[in-house]
Amino acid sequence: DPSGSCVMCKLTSLLYTSAIHFILYSSIHFIHYSVYISYSTLLYISYSALHFILYSAIHFILYSAIHFILYSAIHFILCYTFPTLLYISYSTLLYISYSTLLYISYSTLQFISYSTLVYTVRLKC
Description:
Elements: H1 2-124
């Protein structure tokens, strides 16, 4: 029967076309999802690496800045401020003690000389 064989040809052709369509469709979807998964994985790895690098850089910069500021402040206090304050305190103390001692000596000498003068004048009179 020629029409029956034509139906079989059409069915076989339809089957081959469906199989080829299924294989192509599956292959394209497989490639699409593979590329999507690879792209997503690469994007995630890049993002994680970038995040780690930025976090490490910011952490290092902040740690270095804080360390530098603290070191500079301590160095400045110990090397400049503390000796300056010590020198000012020492100079002030030395000046006060020297002035006090000089004043006491001068006052004592003045008192002794005045008392001696008064005593001498009284004796003569």
